[in-house]
Design brief:
The strands form two sheets. The protein has a three-stranded mixed sheet with strand order 2-1-6, with helices on one face. It has helices spanning 3-20, 41-52; strands at 28-34, 62-68, 71-74, 80-82, 98-102, 106-112. Helix content is 27%, strand content 29%. The chain is elongated. The chain has one domain: hypothetical protein PF0899 fold (2-Layer Sandwich), CATH 3.30.2320. With 113 residues, it is an alpha+beta fold. The protein binds zinc ion. Residues 74, 76-77, 79, 90, 92-93, 95 line the site of zinc ion. Zinc ion binds at residues 74, 76-77, 79, 90, 92-93, 95.
């Protein structure tokens, strides 16, 4: 369950940004989660109330999650494909040589007040 650790860090970050800006409440947080991180979005939804329960600044804050597909570019035939769906192999030529283009990120994309 490493989701709780990264979620705590994200919440810490949002809290300090909000305080730096003199805000006493956060309306929503948007997390961007790449599917190649292995994080399960459901766990973030589950742990969010736990991580924020003693922090009034997050009272009623909505957690929004955007998942980003794991996209890769085949180095042998230049095909674009979905890494998860194709299990890391190019569907066109079968090569595993690839450049990952997205889906490895975990970040706080947006904060609303
Ligand atoms: Zn290929």
């Amino acid at each position: 369950m490493h989701e709780i650790g990264v979620l705590t860090k994200a919440v810490d970050l949002v809290e300090s940004v909000a305080k730096d800006n003199g805000l006493d409440h956060v309306g929503y947080i948007t997390l961007e989660i790449g599917e190649l991180t292995g994080y399960v979005p459901l766990f973030f939804e589950k742990y969010f109330p736990v991580v924020t329960e003693d922090r009034p600044i997050f009272n009623g804050t909505e957690l929004r999650i955007q998942t980003v597909r794991g996209q890769a570019l085949c180095r042998d035939c230049q095909s674009l494909y979905n890494v998860m769906k194709q299990e890391g192999r190019c569907p066109k030529c079968g090569s595993r040589e690839k450049k990952i283009l997205g889906g490895q990120q975990f970040l706080v994309k947006d904060i609303g007040y």
